[in-house]
Hints:
This protein is an alpha+beta fold. The protein is 38% helix and 27% strand. It contains three helices and seven strands; from the N terminus they run H-H-E-E-E-E-E-H-E-E. The strands form two sheets. It has a five-stranded mixed sheet, with helices on both faces. A two-stranded antiparallel sheet has the order 2-3. It is globular. The mean pLDDT is 96.
Amino acid sequence: MFEPIAAETERVAAAVMDAAFKVHRALGPGLLESVYEACLCHELVRHGIAFERQLSLPVVYEGVRLDAGLRLDLLVANLVIVELKAVEHLIPLYEAQVLTYLKLTGKRLGLLINFNSPKLKDGFKRLVL
């Protein structure tokens, strides 16, 4: 049985989603992922929420720390991993990507957000490890 997600982590996740909905309402679908990322980061700054953007994520393989080119789109408040997409449909590979990032970082909660959805709620996945 899994431990519940900590209240602070839930608060951060809710703030990220609120910011993402605001960005999506303003811009709609159809832009590049980088545009949505920049706007989402702007919203997080406006709300005083700490984050790291395009954070390099090394892989430890056979006890050796390797830079394999992995990058987290956002690590928010050192609690929530946010993976952004601007694609036609979310596919299982993207969920696997977020779950792997959670495993590699030891974090519990990841948000997968596809800004290319006509309704953002349909392009949102919450992943818990």
